[in-house]
């Protein structure tokens, strides 16, 4: 069962004994999820905090219910809530989230949030053990204790993942902050999406989601594409992704890289994405540090041709979602490599078709 804590104002005292959480029923958005139902009441809490962007991020621990939730406040330890969303002031839902735990599919979840300057995104930790695994992975690759070849490989890996800023809350780089109208695609990589220790029921559940993943090694989780000509946005979710087969992939890429029949621009976008994906694949060929299960790559490019930002015009690919990462495997991650290679194969086929169309137009 799920408890929803409805919050209008949160106030913290300056001493551990006087910290308190005030709640009422007037707001209708949940700020956190717990493992049982209770009525709103005063709750004794402890908290961890970090400062960023001029505000204090509070990580609250419920002493009564032995669980965690998060909120955000100013340096005065007071949180004023947005009237419409019931989120802390200056914190908003991340409108470009296209996969993962989202209120549209799981109403009890908050989803990814973004600070008002859009420099950082706030990703709520998932329940144990997944949340702890992902948090531990970020802490591992962003500490400076590694030596030798391990240090070199991890330094290279950092280029492919969001920067991690704290150790009690996943405050990550907003990978889309340089884009005015980002076009994004989330692709899950690997033919095995379950952990080695998964139960038979879990394995069957994962295989049922997308039966052909063991053959192709990846799955489209969703995309959001900006159409500048009509000033509209096309969004596809993971249910759409489950309906796709290899014969559909060229149409998928055509929708994602669509440039109103300007083939030269399409070629540049695809080549830019391919270069980034191949750089990740090259790193995987050398590394024996980690095994990634149910992890994704996030493809992005600028959908507004008139954008003047040099950084924004460069397509990007980043690895995301690390709730199922195993450390010190001492062998190549063939599961992930298989998926990357196949994704590259289908994307190169699409690029070849686009170039052929371009030659036919010129002829």
From TrEMBL:
Coiled coil: none
Reactions catalysed according to its record: 1D-myo-inositol 1,4,5-trisphosphate + 2 ATP = 1D-myo-inositol 1,3,4,5,6-pentakisphosphate + 2 ADP + 2 H(+); 1D-myo-inositol 1,3,4,6-tetrakisphosphate + ATP = 1D-myo-inositol 1,3,4,5,6-pentakisphosphate + ADP + H(+)
Record field: transmembrane: 45-65
GO cellular component: cytoplasm; nucleus
GO process annotations (BP): inositol phosphate biosynthetic process
Recorded superkingdom: Eukaryota
Keywords, alphabetical: ATP-binding, Kinase, Membrane, Nucleotide-binding, Transferase, Transmembrane, Transmembrane helix
Documented EC number(s): 2.7.-.-
GO molecular function: ATP binding; inositol-1,3,4,6-tetrakisphosphate 5-kinase activity; inositol-1,4,5-trisphosphate 3-kinase activity
Record-stated family: Belongs to the inositol phosphokinase (IPK) family.
Protein name, per record: Kinase
Organism: Trichinella nelsoni
